[in-house]
Amino acid sequence: MDRSIENVGRRLRELRQARGVSLTELARDTHYTAGYLSQVESGASIPSISALATLAAALGSSITAFFGPETTEKVRVARAGDPEKLRMAPNAAEEYVVFSHRGPDAAFSALIHHLYPTAEVVRHRHPGERFALMLSGSGRLTMTDGESYDLEPGDAIHYSSHPEHELVVTSNGPAEILWFVSPPVV
Predict the structure, then answer these.
(1) Distances (CA, A) of 93 to 8, 84, 173, 175
(2) Nearest CA to 90 among 172, 183, 158, 3?
(3) What domains can you pick out in the chain, each with its CATH number?
(4) CA angle, 99 as apex, 98 and 105 as ends, to 5°?
(5) Residue 105: phi, psi to the nearest 5?
(6) Residue-wise pLDDT tens digits, 118-154
(7) Strand partners, 97
(8) Coil/strand/helix, residue 26
């Protein structure tokens, strides 16, 4: 199944209002500006998956609230050629293949991230830890303190995702990254 997150802004507004949280309060809790959040809610801006994870956590929910019901399967088998794909927009510079999602009881999410070269730099900050294994292409992870880590195929990195950080593709073609994310994002 190939899914694009559509109506994410409407779902964000509904969730925020259901929790009785103002844009200003959500901005304070997530370190995003109220203007950016307003653009997301109006559909003028499409957030990254990590931004959605941050927003969901701040609203006491899971990221699945933005794109569909949670799965509570005890065992999930992802078959080759039958992966579930997640895109933030139909022409997004990134795509995720979701390998695990056991709902609220899961300890982590496993994803393959196809990240295409782009001039846009997206900064991320979200609770938890990330483990990444560069499968193909190359990239650079830069943390808030300015420390950078160049990743080539076969390289792995494990880090706390609380500090702001960014990941950019440094190869001419797309990077393919295996992620283990805790807490789970999908």
Answers:
(1) 17, 17, 12, 11
(2) 3
(3) 2-66 (1.10.260.40), 84-182 (2.60.120.10)
(4) 100
(5) -90, -5
(6) 877 777 777 789 999 999 999 999 998 889 999 999 9
(7) 85, 112
(8) helix
Tokens encoding 76: 């999930």
Whether 79 has a pLDDT exceeding 60, the answer reads: yes
Whether the Cβ atoms of residue 67 and residue 10 lie closer than 8 Å to each other:
no
User: Could you identify the residue written with the tokens 């295409």?
Assistant: 116
Beta partners for residue 151, in sequence order: 139
Nearest-angstrom CA–CA distance, 60 and 39: 21
Phi, psi of 184 (to 5 degrees): -60, 145
Region 11-31: what's the mean pLDDT? 90
* pTM of the predicted model over 0.70: no
Q: For residue 98, what are the contacts with CB-CB under 8 A and spacing of at least 6? A: 78, 83, 84, 85, 86, 109, 110, 111, 186
Distance (Å, whole) CA 4 – CA 18: 24
- How far apart CA 43 and CA 60 sit, in angstroms, is 22
Distance (Å, whole) CA 115 – CA 112: 10
Are 51 and 32 in contact by the 8 Å Cβ rule? The answer is yes
Question: CB–CB of 123/155 below 8 Å?
Answer: no
Q: Residues 45, 55: contact at Cβ < 8 Å?
A: no
